[in-house]
């Protein structure tokens, strides 16, 4: 790559390609520089997430846990905190009143989940512990699609071994951080929602 700007353009194209392989139709990117989310004005990012939640009105919001997933990536740690705060603020009429004035309605999402895992996972020779597992979803049938999506991220292929070790498990696990608790042994993100 000749510049970080060129890399950003390529990575956005890779993201669109990967999303298409997964069947994801809509992607929202804030346009913040990779690796620098912690230096971006947090109010700006929270406002963007609040707006998206108010527009989309999801039943479940999923983000990284506060540890930043097994990789402990700084952007993952930051987005965990900002998404958690934004989820709470999205249901509050006094938060970002300009959005309310523009016609958006508050939305209180019933559940926020963090991606997690059981035990310790090694990443970059450091053990990382996730939050407790509340929901575990069998995804074995989807692993070939996940691999196809990874293939679209050509600039990330040097992380292949880490991807295979961390992302190709037969189940994906989640911790219910806020909202409606999941029943013991839950295998569905939407179980027991009001």
Description:
It is a single chain. With 194 residues, the chain is of the alpha+beta class. It has a single domain, classed as Rossmann fold (3-Layer(aba) Sandwich), CATH 3.40.50.10320. 38% of the residues lie in helices and 16% in strands. It is built from 6 helices and 6 strands; from the N terminus they run ααβααββββααβ. A 4-stranded mixed β-sheet has the order 1-2-6-5, covered by helices on one side. It has a two-stranded antiparallel sheet with strand order 3-4. A hairpin with a 2-residue loop joins β3 and β4. The longest helix has 19 residues. The chain is globular and about 45 Å long.
Distance between the termini: 49 Å
**What is the class in the CATH system?**
Alpha Beta
In what range is the share of β-strand residues? 15-25%
Order of H and E elements:
HHEHHEEEEHHE
Major sheet summary line: 4 strands, mixed
Radius of gyration: 17 Å
CATH topology: Rossmann fold
Question: In the residues, how many domains can be counted?
Answer: 1
**What CATH architecture would you give?**
3-Layer(aba) Sandwich
Helical amount among residues, as a percent range?
Answer: 25-40%
Weakly predicted, low-confidence segments: none
Question: CATH homologous superfamily - what is it?
Answer: LmbE-like
Give the helix tally: 6
Mean pLDDT: 91
- Please state how the strands of the largest beta sheet are arranged side by side: 1-2-6-5
């Amino acid at each position: 790559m000749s510049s970080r700007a060129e890399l950003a353009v390529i990575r956005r194209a890779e993201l669109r390609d990967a999303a298409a392989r997964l069947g994801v139709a809509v992607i929202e990117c804030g346009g913040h520089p990779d690796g620098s989310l912690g230096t971006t004005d947090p109010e700006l990012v929270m406002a963007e997430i609040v707006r998206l939640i108010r527009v989309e009105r999801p039943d479940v919001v999923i983000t990284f846990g506060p540890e930043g997933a097994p990789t402990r990536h700084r952007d993952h740690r930051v987005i965990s905190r900002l998404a958690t705060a934004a989820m709470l603020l999205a249901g509050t009429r006094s938060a970002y009143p300009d959005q309310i004035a523009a016609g958006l309605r508050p939305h209180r999402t019933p559940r926020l989940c963090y991606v997690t895992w059981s035990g310790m996972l090694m990443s970059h020779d450091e053990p990382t512990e996730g939050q407790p597992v509340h929901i575990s979803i069998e995804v074995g049938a989807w692993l070939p699609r996940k691999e196809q999506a990874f293939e679209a991220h050509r600039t990330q292929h040097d992380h292949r071994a880490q991807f295979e070790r961390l992302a190709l498990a037969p189940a994906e696990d989640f911790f219910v951080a806020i909202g409606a608790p999941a029943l013991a042994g839950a295998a569905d993100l939407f179980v027991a929602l009001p």
